[in-house]
Design a protein that fits this description.
This protein is mainly α. Helices cover 52% and strands 0% of the residues. It is built from nine helices and no strands. The longest helix has 12 residues.
Length: 138
């Protein structure tokens, strides 16, 4: 294992648990307000901490967008430089939903379409009065 990887696995959260919880549950609008309350050097540590955890990855990118490149590179080296570059990129487009999720819902009719008259039993007299089909002889 590389020393830098071990460093990120063993690190502790640079902010108190309550603030991390607020960051995690904040909306996109409220996140910049919370980030502004943290000092720049602590913000870079928090960006690296969150970026290395899959459930906090997008928060790490958002925090890194508010950091200076020097702070991220000084604390994270090549990872910090990469994080800085990724935080400045345009956000990737949302994944395209499959056809299955976009298809229309099926609805069922609730009333009758038309009333069918009851079918009468054929009279025995009419069935006998019909001529039999002709046979062709070859």
């Amino acid at each position: 294992m590389l020393p830098q990887q071990q460093m990120f696995e063993d690190d502790v959260c640079p902010v108190r648990d309550e603030l991390l919880g607020e960051l995690y549950s904040s909306s996109k609008v409220g996140l910049p307000v919370l980030i502004a309350t943290v000092t720049p050097d602590l913000r870079a540590q928090l960006a690296l901490f969150c970026y290395h955890r899959s459930h906090l990855h997008t928060i790490g990118l958002a925090i890194a967008a508010s950091c200076d490149e020097d702070d991220l590179v000084q604390l994270g080296g090549a990872v910090g430089a990469s994080l800085y570059a990724r935080s400045r990129e345009a956000p990737s487009p949302a994944p395209v939903a499959s056809h299955y999720t976009n298809r229309r819902k099926i609805t069922l009719a609730t009333g009758s379409f038309r009333e069918m008259p009851p079918m009468d039993e054929p009279d025995e007299d009419t069935s006998e009065s019909k001529p039999a089909p002709m046979r062709r002889e070859a």
